[in-house]
Amino acid sequence: MELRAVEIFLVLAEELHFGRTAQRLYLTQPRVSQTIRALEESIGGRLFDRTSRQVRLTALGERLRDELRPAHDQFRHAISTVTELARGVSGELRVCLASYAMAGRHFTTIVREFTRRYPDCRLTVTEEFPGEFARLRTGVYHLMCHRQPITEPDLTIGPTLSREPSILLVQAGHRLAVRGYATLEDLGDYAVIPRGDIPKALYEKYFPLTTPAGRPIRRGSPIATTSDILHRIAGGEVVHPTSESFVNYYHHPDVTHVPLHGNPEVESALVWVTEMENAAVRAFAEVAAEVLACAGSVGGRSVQIGSARTDLG
Known about the structure:
InterPro entries: LysR_HTH_N, LysR_subst-bd, WH-like_DNA-bd_sf, WH_DNA-bd_sf. Keywords: Activator, DNA-binding, Transcription, Transcription regulation. Belongs to the LysR transcriptional regulatory family. It holds the Pfam family LysR_substrate. The chain is α/β, with parallel strands linked by helices. Helix content is 39%, strand content 24%. It has 3 domains: 84 residues, Winged helix-like DNA-binding domain superfamily/Winged helix DNA-binding domain (Arc Repressor Mutant, subunit A, Orthogonal Bundle); 99 residues, 3-Layer(aba) Sandwich (D-Maltodextrin-Binding Protein, domain 2), CATH 3.40.190; 99 residues, D-Maltodextrin-Binding Protein, domain 2 (3-Layer(aba) Sandwich). The strands form 5 sheets. A 5-stranded mixed sheet has the order 4-3-5-13-6, with helices on one face. Strands 8-12-7-11 form a 4-stranded mixed sheet. A two-stranded antiparallel ribbon has the order 1-2. Helix 1 packs across helix 4 and helix 2 crosses helix 3. The two termini are 49 Å apart.
């Protein structure tokens, strides 16, 4: 059975319409019909029941579809993989940071090393808050530095970029700043940012609805940027749970921070759409894993990249 015949059969099994199949494969309708007839003669049985109004798979056709589809997909994946290898890591790789604090303290080293190894790949890094995943799924970005938890089944979670204690950003002179620390119970006295487009699982982990004692934690007015958060904190409108590295990247003269006791560690990772993984994505993830392993910044953990497993730490 020729590969073209397999493709025609599988598309027709999906479309169940000779005209649409021909259009999709840039063939004539008689060519599609001729190929299916020849295939049925070769096999010795009917694959489709045809009427003037309907095309339907027979039981034999369903079995052939189910047997051929995985092999055909694997064949296409193999060709795509070797084509990428032949071309090398090139083109453009677009990385999104919901905030630079999510990229970890070794991100600049990762970028520098990737650029050194793959000079033919144009790397762009953009900060764009909040960290919703639609921008990955639509191909605006290839990779995102994002805070855990990431629960979406269509995404691959790559190397852990950072794992840090929680802090609470408060207005300078705030009573919690004077005391020198905050607890989750303290959040019941203040407001935090609303969810907006922040992924639900992530938001609920770091911005609980209630304190441990069951007191509600109020939500402030909507925010659009990281600068908005700082402005609201400085004005005393909200307090903000985040990671220690936040203050390395963002400053405001009227904002300070204290340790937040009881909140989980803040962990960030590389993430990408599994079906859109390519050579450049794999290369960046591998460079990140190597840099982080050398730095010893994340504990012993493994990450699956393509068909290889890389140990971190």
